[in-house]
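Q: How would the structure tokens look for this protein?
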Amino acid sequence: MPNIRNLKAFVSLSENACDFGIHTQLGIPRSTLWSCINDLERETGLQLVLRKKQNNVLTEEGKNFAPYAQRLIKLFEEGVAQAQTSESDEPEGEIIIATTSSMANSWVMPSVKGFQAFYPKIKLRIIAGDMIDTATEMISDIIFRPIADKDFLLRHWHLSYCLGLFASPDYLENHGVPETPEDLVNHSMIGYGEHVFSYCPEIDWHLKGRWPGFPKLHPKVTINSTLSLYRAAIESIGICSSATEANIFYNGKLVRVLPQINGPEVKVHFSTKKGLSRKLERNVQVFNNFFVNHLRNIGIEVKNEEEAA
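A: Here is the predicted structure in token form.
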């Protein structure tokens, strides 16, 4: 087995166009870097670097060996990490989770009791809100909500749902059932209003007059909470927009209005911050596994990002 120090020196060299000036970043003399390469060539029986007066280049053997050297280093580091973390060690620490108010109410909070029964030493700090600012994005270990693809985040999986229209049975009995989008002008509409719902610009898709066949509508009531929109419809205030699976999410009994029409698709991503410490990454993975199982147990399917690509 090649010396791990020699492997790391070779990988650094291969990632920097075989420039031996990389020795300054490695914090070692140029002669030591050369010694690492010479030793690795003896250990492997390969000629990795073609020595030239003007500049040095990787040989074909060196180019072919480089990705395997990277894997050996990764395997070594994983082995060390596993040895340092005994399976008997109980996960502990704190996880900061940013989500929407609706996701917190429907899925995150119902899973917390079971999670803490299994992992009592992990503290959850949940930040719930439809609007998320940059500061919250940066401090969160997990972001579970609609969000843009960002350099500092790693997407693991997502779930999707479409928006549709809903009303209570009492409302429809008293005001009639709309048969076309044009009929909505004669109904009391509920909207999110001119408030910001981060990364979900189509929250009031049914009111703007831009969805095919829909006239521009003026809501009688607006409230910047998707859960409260649903509750307003339960109170027979009017017709609201919500996820087509809203009755499952909110454990309610609203009636789908214009069920043949689906509104915009919304994707809720489960993302984690890159560069987490080994301990925090372990805790985040523990929560991820538990949460995915919780969702599947209540009939919610998630899709890995690799599958969606």
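The domain at 161-266 is CATH 3.40.190.10 (D-Maltodextrin-Binding Protein; domain 2).

Residues 248 and 299 are 9 Å apart (CA to CA).

Upvote if useful.
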